[in-house]
Amino acid sequence: MKFTNHNILTFFTSLAFLFAPIWVEAQSEVKTVDKIIAKVDNYIILESDLALAYKDRLSRGGQQSAEGRCEVLESLIVNKLMLAKAEIDSVTVLESQVDAQLENRMKMMVQQIGSEEKIEEYYGKSLDEFKVEIRDDVKEQMIIGEMQRTITQDLEVTPKQVQNFFDNIPKDSLPFYSTQVQVGQIVKKPTMSREAKENIKARLNGLRERILEGENFEDIARLYSQEPGAKQSGGNIGYFERGQLAPEYEATALRLKPGEISKPVETDFGFHIIELLDRRGNEFNTRHILILPKFTKRDMEKSVQFLDSIRNLIIKDSITFEKAAAEYSDDMNTSSSGGYFIESEAGGTKISVDELDPNIFFTIDTMEVGSITKPIIFRQQDRSEAVRIIYFKDKIRPHRADIRKDYQKIKQAALNKKKSEKLAKWFQDSKSEVFIILDDHYKDCQILN
């Protein structure tokens, strides 16, 4: 296979045929006279779809070229082919998974833009309207992802294949990596006093009584629930399978009869009252009212003192940072990796500074390699407060890809290459099984040849 700069970049970032993101930002900017330029069975690709996808490629550093436009169109056709084949092969995703993914995306948008009100003002529509508008796109993306996993799930690369992959890249085409760091954290969430817990439970029991006496659950949830999306959802979270929600929440919900409302239950997210709406097979549909825990200054001080003692043990070499994180950290996202933040693409613990949370970045910017901060109070993603210590283990200066320093990234790149080749072969083998039409204007792309 001939290596080009585009191929090298593709292998070092993602699969060649990754499904396109939802074009939220660009939709208000690209003005294209629409027409159908390709059809794959019952799925169509519009001129505007290509324009948006091509604009996204350019925004990520792609160069303007006819070849690049053809590559984008090919990836869109592959996506539609995957959807068509998914119908034939009965590959699908649960509606509850789509709902969960949609909620996660909405929460990310709220965090990035600042508030639900700002999102509604920016797009000129309510959050519920926005979710309805993009739901089908989210579901299609998830089905495409499931098809990709089905096609490539058995692929692996050996150390020898990784070395061969690296050796075959021209030295002047090796990617240049920005500064990378190895940073870990140990998090301790404060513990509420029994009295504070009982006060919250009493408050929830009061809301439960009001509902049992005839007030509308959704109205109460909109007024009092502290879940970020409750104002729009009325506390409804949709269908989920067993094992997808907090164990305490799920166990309580599954003990209820449809229409029954639980007494207060505590999870890692806070305190809930739960109504079971429906059960069908292995799925269940609920709504809830959430009250977040409130901690006193003394609660926070206890967490600070605990982490300070752990920090001293690490500094004295009485325990390693990694073991302390595994045993004592309350952050499930990092405790399983020895406390270290994980690089999103390759999965290694050496992460680009661009991927770091800004608060982490500014903290380590004043630290020496090998040092550990004193306990720091910070706000978690759910906006609750906790305490953490941060360990700045290593720093790697900007450099060309090096197999010793960047093995995990190069391994992932080699695997991506193997996957893209498998997907390309799948496309060639599968395109004859569905009905594909391409507009004459794009015949020169040679996509169907």
UniProtKB/TrEMBL annotation:
One Pfam match, by short name? Rotamase
Specify the domain of life of the species encoding this protein: Bacteria
Q: List each copy of the PpiC domain by range.
A: 178-278, 281-376
Under the GO molecular function aspect, what terms does this record hold? peptidyl-prolyl cis-trans isomerase activity
Keywords on this record?
A: Isomerase, Rotamase, Signal
- Note the PANTHER family from the entry: CHAPERONE SURA
> What's the name of the protein?
PpiC-type peptidyl-prolyl cis-trans isomerase
The source organism is Marivirga tractuosa (strain ATCC 23168 / DSM 4126 / NBRC 15989 / NCIMB 1408 / VKM B-1430 / H-43) (Microscilla tractuosa)
